[in-house]
Amino acid sequence: MSPKHSYILGLNTYDHDVSACLLRDGAIAFAIAKERITRQKHASGFYEEVIDYCLNVEGISLDDVELIVRNCYILPVGEMEKRLVHQEMPYYFGTSDRKKASSHPLFLSHSGKVLTISHHLAHAYSAFAVCPFNDGVIMVVDGVGSYRSDVDERFSPDDSVSPLARESESYYRFEGSKIETLKKVWMEPSRGFLNQEFYTMPGLGALYSRVSIYIFADWNKCGEVMGLAPYGRPDRIKPLLELKGNGQLAVPEWSEEFNRPWLSDVGEAWETSPSMQHWEDLAWRVQDDTEKVLLARARWLRETTGAKNLCMAGGVALNCVANGRIAREAGFDNVWIQPAAGDDGIAIGCAYYGHMAIQRKPRSFVMKHANLGVDYSDKDVHELINRRFVRLVTKTTSSKNICADTARLLSEGQIVGWFQGRSEFGPRALGNRSILADPRKPEMKDRLNKRVKHRQSFRPFAPIVLAERAAEIFEGGQQSPFMMLAESVRPNWRERIPAIVHVDGTARLQTVRQEDNPILHALLKEFEALTGVPVLLNTSFNVKGEPIVETPGNALACFLGTGIDYLVLHDLLITKNPLHRILSPMMQVYSDVGAIVRTGLGQP
Q1: What is the CATH number of the domain that holds 524?
Q2: Per-residue b or e along 132-165, where b marks 16 or more CB atoms closer than 10 Å to that residue's CB
Q3: What is the dihedral of CA 480, 484, 489, 493, to 10 degrees?
Q4: Whole-prediction pTM value?
Q5: Structural domain ending residue among the three candidates 275, 310, 339
Q6: 480-517 pLDDT, tens per residue?
Q7: What does the alpha-carbon distance between residue 338 and residue 126 come to, in Å, rounded to a whole number?
Q8: 234, 288 in Cβ contact below 8 A?
Q9: CA dihedral 508, 573, 32, 587 (to 10 degrees)
Q10: pLDDT in tens, 581-594
Q11: Nearest-CA neighbor of 230 among 193, 285, 149?
């Protein structure tokens, strides 16, 4: 690739969801989260792997990059790195990271082309810089952002909070490439066992994470809390959040009545716990409170600014149930949500801050899809399937019409791993790294949860639907290309596609347009021709606890180790042969498959 292009690199560093985004002439060239490379969920630590991924596939070096913009929500990156030099912090900086960083040009860099920005400002740029609107407002809500003392943007001088207060909510107005801060909601520091216990602080996202820890023993299981909420009984638990008349958020003290946490190390099975009804009721409460607060905030933004367009980012913007209500009820003409709304999307915001705020260049790129990974070649795929052990346990057929052949298998009840094109950036599989199934079969949900995903039975599955047919099947009428909105399934369709209908009658839908994903759109059309249903069940191509697959080798390893019936790699249709059942116990030690599991194939 010619070095005459202008390159900017954005980085989310050290804490969870380390990621990189490379801009080429103001457009996103590539973006990747570290977890997709290392296969460690929400990978933290040093950022060498994500930088190398982007630079190698583009065919450039760091010397070709004009500007590098970074963020770490804990501390400004330079200060964080100074501390890491003399402190043992294995989560942020393990032994292997120390070795990599010691010779890396960006570690402890004093270069003028390397800078740091604060957390919510990066989230804001990730949303508005690539949205389809020229003007509007931005809502950023997450668990915790930067310290007040580290915030770069201008905000109200009458904020009297401590310099150690942390960002919780931030609201902005934008026009063209300019952004203005309207309001910030801070969380005062709280006492705790560790100073990074943000979930003990009085904030909206922090409280949701606290409930996640209480129910699932993990602060980062907020999506599971959202999925559990419809099973709860309304108003059995007192409110956990309240908006006062002046817009002040009140978070009552976490009291002794919450004395039934799930403790994963005591050996109690989660699904058979006698505390289940209590957990379901608590999930309902925090979800209902969150929806009410977010909706009130969005209405305030609309009423005070008169804006017609809303952009959203921050981890709380992954709450598709609340997003659906905002889209329907807040009064905006349009709502756009960054598909990587969590901290992996920080890399996008950092890169565009460099492009727009530092280099003073105008916005010119709209993020119409999230397919920002490497496009693996047919050669990569053929090298993989020709490995000796792979040929022993699989049968591969080249398809002349992969969409028609896959649609037939799906209509017959087969579960298909679907690998096409570039991997999606963000936490949702949007049809390039997906496991697909027939939504007409009510038993499909349990089959997938038990045989493939190995996760709790309450967890719902999402539909993908032809964009032109979505309004016929789902209420609300919103387009949802990034699977960011939950909508009610129309009553006359619920019995036709029961596998994707949640217990409350809703579904987290993804709408598919031909111009955004031609092959996925063609697959839906073929399935519709066979069944009359323009919908497929879509779930991410992974098992519980693992990241979504990135490489063809990752996909094959997941296929061979689960109950997926068929694997589609480009135009190849792969199934397991009888030898698979005999030889599968040896898969983890056999050299060929061991190499696939460890490194994947086609990794840049």
Answers
A1: 3.90.870.20
A2: ebeebbbbbbbbbbbbbebbbeeeeeeeeeeeeb
A3: 60
A4: 0.95
A5: 339
A6: 999 999 999 999 999 999 999 999 999 999 999 999 99
A7: 7
A8: yes
A9: 110
A10: 776 666 554 445 55
A11: 285
